[in-house]
Amino acid sequence: MASGNEPSLEPRTRPHVMTIAGSDSGGGAGIQADLKTIEAFGCYGSSVLTGLTAQNTLGVQAVHVVPTDFVIQQLQSVISDELPKAIKLGMLTCASTIRALAQEVSKLNTTIVLDPVMISTSGHTLLPEDAMEALYELYPHVDYLTPNIPEAKKLSGWGHEVKNLDDMIELAKKTNEKTKSLSVLLKGGHAVVSREEVLKYVGKYEIVWEEGDDEDDTVEVYNEYKDSLNVNAKPQKDLVVDLLVKEGEIVAMFVGNKVDSQSTHGTGCTLSAAIACSYAVSPGAADAESLIPIFKRAIGYTQSAIATAFPFGHGHGPLNHGHLTMRRALPFSPTKHNPHPFLTHLIQSDLPLWKSYVRHPFVVQLGKGTLPRKCFEHYIKQDYHYLKHYARAHALGAYKADSFEDIKAFTEISLHIARESTMHVAYCQEFGVSLADLEATPESANCSAYARYVIDIGTQGDILDLYMAVASCLVGYGEVGLWLKKQVAKGEAKVERNLYGRWMSDYGGKEFLGAVNRGIGEIIQTAN
C-alpha cells in the first residue's frame, strides 16, 4: 500500500528564462553567453534574436539587424507555449524593436532584466541615438537595469567624471530616477574604489563582501596559504564596487577584488543573465532584503567565471560559464584568485559556525590572558590524549596510502606528532601537570567522541575522507594562531605577561603554519 511519502518519479521542472539579445559568432557574449549561464543555473533557456553579429575576441566587425516584426514573432511564439519566469534583454539593435518590445513586455507578468548594451568593448556602436531615446519607453517595464558606468552616464545625462565612490552613489541614484526602472545595479568595473572609501560606509549601507574578504570575516589561514604560494595575500586596497539602488535608495554595496584577467568578453551579458536566473530559482517575492542574495549569487557566479576562464583567441577571451557544472558540482580547481576553492566553499557554507569555533570564548580569553587556569589545565590534559589519536590517524593514513611518497609523508607526520608529545609533556610540567597526571586523567566524552569520529571516518573512507576529518583541527588551530596574532597587533590580545603567551606563539609560529600550509596543499591536491 502506498504511504503517500514515495518520491515522485516525474522529471522535475526547470524555471524558464528567456534571453532577447543578439548573437555573437565568437560565442563569448550575446545569446551564447546567456544560454550557457542559464544552463549553469539549472534553468531552461529560450532565445529571441534581435541581431546577428560578425565578431570575435578582437571586436565586432558587422551587425545584421533582425526585422522588428520577426523579433516579435519569435517572442509571441515562445510565450504562447510557456511564459518565462524571467526575461533578460540585451542588444536591442533599433528603435522600432525597442518600442515593439515595450508594448509586448508590458502585457507580461514576468521579471525583466535589461542590460543596456550600447557600445562594444572594441568601440563598435551597437545602438543608434534614436534607439537610445526609445529605451525610455521600455524602462518603466524593467525590474532590474544593469548599466556600467559609461552607460549610466549616458542614460542619466550625468556630465561629470566619476572620481570616487560618492560619485558612483550619486550616479546610481540619478540613473534610477531618470530611467524610472524599479532597481538599478550600477556595475563598477570601470572605476577603482579604495578600501578606505568602502569602510566609510560601514553601518550606513549594507556591504556585501566577496567571500573571504569581509573586514570582520576574513579567514586568516587563506592569506597564509596564499603567501606560501607567492600569491598576493594582502587584502587589495583597490576594489570593484557594484551598487544596487531601488526606488532611489541604496540597497547594498557588493564589494570584491578585481580579477586580473584578459577573459572578460561577455561579462555584462553573463551578469544580467545570471541575475535573471538567480531570481528565477529564488523562492518568494523580491523585496529589498531578498534582493541581496539574488544579486550576490549572480555576481559571485560571474566573478568565478572570469577567474576560471581559459585562454581563447587573440583578444579579450570568453568567460568560463561552465565552472559550476564541469565534472563536479563542488569547486575544486584552484586559481590565482582563489587557490583554495574547496576549503573556501566548506567554510563559507556555514561561516557563523566556523567563527563560533575559531573565535570561541576560550580562544578570546586565552588571548587576553583572562582564561581561568583550571580551564587551560583541563584542555592540555585532554590535548595529550588527542595527540595519541592524531598520531594514530596519520599512521592509518600511511596504511591507506597507495604510493611510497604518501606512506612516507603520513609516517613522518606521525613521528612529528610523537616528538611533539614530549614537548607537550614538558609544557604541561610548567603548569604543575606531570606525565603521571596526564596518563591518569580520564579522556573526556568530547575528546573521545571527536577522536573516534576521526578514526572511524579514516577506517571507512579514503585518504580525502581522512584529511577532511582532521582538517578542522589542523586548519582551525592555524586560524586561531593567526587570528590571535592579529588581535595582538590590534591591542586586543597580548603575548607579554600572558600565562598562555607561549601557546599563542607556537600556534602562530612559522613551523606550525608551515604544517598547515602543507596540509591545505595536500587536501587540494587529493581533492583534484
From TrEMBL:
Residues 24-197, 236-320 form the Pyridoxamine kinase/Phosphomethylpyrimidine kinase domain. It comes from Cryptococcus deuterogattii Ram5. GO terms for molecular function: hydroxymethylpyrimidine kinase activity; phosphomethylpyrimidine kinase activity. CDD domains: HMPP_kinase (cd01169), TenA_C_ScTHI20-like (cd19367). Gene3D superfamilies: 3.40.1190.20, Heme oxygenase-like. This is Phosphomethylpyrimidine kinase. One of its GO terms (biological process) is thiamine biosynthetic process. GO terms for cellular component: cytosol. Keywords: Kinase, Transferase. It comes from the Eukaryota. Residues 352-519 form the Thiaminase-2/PQQC domain.
